[in-house]
Amino acid sequence: MRIAPASALPIRLATSLLLLALGSCIDSYTPDVISAPTSYLVVDGFINGNGATRIKLSRTQNIATTAAPTPEAKATVYIQSAAGARYTMRERSPGFYQSDSLTLSPGQYQVRISTAGTSPATYESALVPLKVTPPIDNLGWRRTDNEVRVLLNTHDATQQTRYYRWKFAETWEFNAAYKSSLEYYPDIDEIGGRTTPIYTCWRTEQPTTIKQATSLQLSQDALVDHILLSFSDRAERIRIRYSVLVMQYAQTADEFAYYEQLRKNTEAIGTVNDPLPVQLTGNVHRTGTATTEPVLGYVGAHTVQQQRLFINRAELSLPSDWAFDSPYASCKLEPEVLSQYRPPLSYPHTFTFADSNYVPVYPYVNPETGALDGYYGSTRECADCRARGSITKPSFW
Amino acid sequence: MTRLYFGILLAGLLASSYPTLAQQGSPSISGDFRNLRFEQFAQRVEAQTPYRFYFNPAALDSVTVQVQANELPLVAVLRQIFEHSSLRFAIDEATNRVFITPEYPLQTRLPDEFFQAAPVSGSPPPAIAGGGQAPARTGRPAEMGTSEFRIYEIGPRQAAPPGNRATITGVVRTSKEPVPGVAVFIDSPNIGTATDKEGAYSLTLPVGRYNLNIRGLGIRPTRRQIWVHASGRLDLEVLSDVTSLREVVVQGQKEGNVRGMQMGVQKLDIKVIKQVPTVFGEADILRVVTALPGVKTIGEGSTGFSVRGGGTDQNLVLFNGATIYNPAHLFGFFSAFNPDAVQSAELYKSAIPVRYGGRLASVLEIEGREGNRKKFGGSGGIGLLTSRLELEGPLGPRTQEDAPAKGSFLVSGRTSYSDWLLHQVPSPTLKNSAASFYDLSAYLTYDLDDKNSLSATGYFSHDRFRLASDTIYEYRNTAAALKWKHTFSPQLAGTLTGTYSRYGFNLKTTRNEYAASTFDYSINQAAVQADASYLWHAKHTLDFGASTLLYNTAPGNQQPLGSSSLLLPTIIQHERALESAVYAADRFDISPRFAVVLGLRYSFFQALGPRQVRDYIAGLSRSESTVTGTTDYSGGQVLANYGGPEWRFSAKYELTATSSVKVSYNRTRQYVHQLTNTTVVSPTDSWKLSDKYIRPQVGDQVALGYYHNFKRNTVEFSVEGYYKRIQDFLDYKGGAVLLLNPHLETDVLNANGRAYGVEVLLRKNVGKINGWLSYTYARSLVQVNTATDQVNGGNWYPSNYDKPHDVTLVGNYRFSRRFNTSLNFNYSTGRPITLPLAKYYIDDAYRVYYSDRNAYRVPDYYRVDFAVNFESNHRIKKLAHSSWTVSIYNLTGRRNPYSVYFQSTGGQIKGYKLSIFGQPIPTLTYNFRF
Hints:
Main location (chain B): membrane
Distance between the termini of chain B: 20 Å
Shape of chain A: globular
Helix content of chain A: under 10%
CATH class of one domain in chain A: Mainly Beta
Subcellular location (chain B): Cell outer membrane
Low-confidence stretches of chain A: 1-21, 269-273
Mean pLDDT of chain A: 83
Radius of gyration of chain B: 33 Å
Helix content of chain B: under 10%
Distance between the termini of chain A: 42 Å
Pfam family, one (chain B): Plug
Oligomer: heterodimer
CATH superfamily of the largest domain in chain B: TonB-dependent receptor, beta-barrel domain
CATH topology of one domain in chain A: Immunoglobulin-like
Order of helices and strands of chain A: HEEEEEEEEEEEEEEEEEEEHEEEEEEH
Strand content of chain B: over 45%
CATH class of the largest domain in chain B: Mainly Beta
Number of domains of chain B: 2
Membrane topology (chain B): Multi-pass membrane protein
Number of helices of chain A: 3
Strand content of chain A: 35-45%
Structural class of chain A: mainly beta
Largest sheet of chain B: 22 strands, antiparallel, barrel
Largest interface: A-B, 83 and 92 residues
CATH architecture of the largest domain in chain B: Beta Barrel
Number of strands of chain B: 59
CATH architecture of one domain in chain A: Sandwich
Mean pLDDT of chain B: 80
InterPro entries (chain B): Beta-barrel_TonB, Beta-barrel_TonB_sf, CarboxyPept-like_regulatory, Plug_dom, Plug_dom_sf, TonB-dep_rcpt-like
């Protein structure tokens, strides 16, 4: 059993803040010695005890590479139980393998992989017990200390779970800076009334941080008002409506330790008193030959519990003039006055808004002549919410 | 001050214008000396008697002797001769010298009554001839052993025939305090010694007359005329070097580098420490210690240091004999010692004296400064982040108004006000933060009589910070020491020391009321040590003693805070253990050039119950899954026993008067271990006692050195090479949990280390330019290769302190007595780090695959600091002496990487380097003394 001291992070954070105050500086740095000799197999996914299991196979990359990870295609992947049952997984897209929707019985499971290509090899993850995740009792929120905190309650009366990990998908509704009533139609090269709505969008984010907790130090296997997420109460995400889907996984102590180490290696470093990074691999290893070839990834086995939370603006009881953080601080509306062009155009055409980076918002009426003489418009980032989200309303909204 | 002494001498001469009768028993004169010129008379008397005449022939060529003598003393004869002339005579019976002078007789010595204290014990009043027994009339009484112009006789005259040897002992002191490290020596034969920490010296000489030279740090060079008849005591009061305000940095005996037995020792006087530029303008002992060859740190902002490849927990830091566990304030930006309360710091890197034990790599002994025994005074300083104040004065009765008191006190305190700095930062997190510290120390000394003296030290430091606004961290050092020094005989002196030390920290977390908690950790130790030094033979000095130390630790106590906290209280079992040692060392001077010290320290350690100890399957890596059961030990029951000899051997051979070769071998054992899995020392690092599974660390070191002094001992040069082996120090499994872990043995590994290197040092202690230049080549390697656990495949890998090349210059140039500048230069190889080799995508983000541990290095380190010190005028009479220090740390603004790290942000991996002081940092400090 290994648990990270809860106190370790704040002190590191604190030290780095202090250092900033004292004139320290952080520069970006890329040592030239880093060039990985070979690329190792990466196994990403878990055995889902109640649903389809999805495993992604890829290869490690050089640090400086900007390309997407190379998928490990055409491999044979299947789930194997300690009792001998085998569940095949099919490659849906290169490197992405999926099983049928399964309901696994309690027991121990592992994933076995045979890679194709010039140097085929076989790999397997360690046999792990299938953990049954207790349901989320309640997902709530509270506004304190200028923060909105998402709070979770869960418990396991059998005291079996103890180690929890969560993943989230946050979705919120937002508006563009300006509501455009005009639209440019490229096929006729004309501006007319808007038919495609671009004012209201929904944005979904999946935080990449590893969030986990243990109830081991508590008298019951229960987490009460555990803070899952927190963000400023001026965040744009609560301006209209906010939602978060929380997926809960029960883990073994070993898996918890792996993720804790993975978190330390990638997230909790960069301060004065960092722990030493660890050469972390996981629970997958190559079989057949006696080799030290590292394989990266931890394949756990658990069921999944999920719950969705909504926060409406009205529930927050914020004043109507509440100033939210806005990504539109630098946005401005500017007119394109067509009559200024020489020779004067007979037809109110457009130059600016033919460019897809600019969006017309409303007509410009010449104050002297009273004629439609051009358009007010702004950049796509300001007037088109699709720059940061999707206009498709999510099914759960 | 010199002028004052001339004044006394002149007054004495005036006061004694008439010669008096010589003492009975002196040679008498017979013969007819009529019609002789004085020169002829003198020749005839010199032929008859041991008397020798000194006069100016030109002044006496008009004198014709008209005397007949029959068994007359010389005094009577001379009185007849000069009865009607203006010439005067003086006879120094001690040396049988006769001086003839015009108008006034020469004073061969000052009369005894001239001084109020009899400095010489066990001797009759020495002879005074020629001069009158003039009473003291100058009004200013002088002190013991004060005068260069009189002869101090030791032992009853004619107590011993010529050729016998006698031992004189005493204390060298200024009006304020004893002076350690002062050379006391005679020229012919060349015999000398240096005073110890209490200022005591002991010198064995053939009986006879000598000029005793006294030279040392912060005192005016002087000499005393002594006439040794038998063993006795002579205390020497010397003048502190007022005019230079102790700026002359003389490191003990000038020849100590070559002639002393010590090797791998560096002594720093507070004056040196004070002139080195530091980041916040405050003199910092530990910062200067880390500029010495063989001492490495991870970087700025950490006072944890490694000596010759050892761990940060392998240094014994003593303040007046009491252990200080965490000698740092505010994440290591300040050392925990107030510079005003410190006299000196001494670092032993090899050839650790036998009286020290319990840590592998080094001993850093910090000596508190003794208070002024004559008058009340104080000093202080005001800086940007801290201020300090120190008060001192005499304690106890005095024999006379101006005489030094029997005791002294010195209290000092220091406090920070760093909060304002945090509040300047435009960050809400920092605005809600607080960081503060203070420390207090007191040092009392009292001489019961000339054979017994007592001293008491108290020390307390406290740090408190709340930076993430929900957790409050606090830590405290407490230390106390009581020392009784007793002189049994001139040959045998002993010290009995009792010490108590405690270190503790606690955390309070309140962010989530259901998980609010407090956490406490503490370690305390109580120790008694008896030391003795016995000069049992002219060629043998024996040091011996015994010590015992009781540890008590409370390794962790987590309690819920508030009624709604669901937290389960957790208390980790307390640990108790006894560490004891007996030791003896003999210094044997085989010949004047060749000396050896042979020492043995035998230490033993007993881990004591009550405790519950888990049992594990033998031969497997200890973990939760290999537990077989537990064993209960009752209170006082020994659950683990360790011990063994620690050899301490050193030898010195002087090649010439200015060069020598020394060699040493050392074994050390350490029974406490610091638990830290960060590269630097953090306040939550705790200490663990050896137990059934955690074995003591054992270190062996051999060292060989060559020492050479140039330019009349003002420039010291040394080359030292060493090889070191460390067994069983602690390393950690990946993701080890160090706090609140009831079974630490499952998370730690036994590592072995080896270190070797060469240190070259050129040091100049006096003159306008002083300081040192050093080059070090040092390697420090670690191996974890047990049957059950390996790191880096069981191969040797560089430790965190492996910085092979290091060049350090610490220099000071004095333009005038009031203005000097200091320059630091430091270059070293970058420290080892673990670098990412590849990236991979897992769990919706890029992750990093790291290299073997410490396989790469950060870029090289390079830094220059500069400081200017201004002193106000040097008039002795004024309210306060003050000085200003302007310093610039990291003058070139080089961004030395403190750490290099890779972070996954927004799905991308970026490399960063963190520089702690990435720009020049100017500071201004005002210091005062009254």
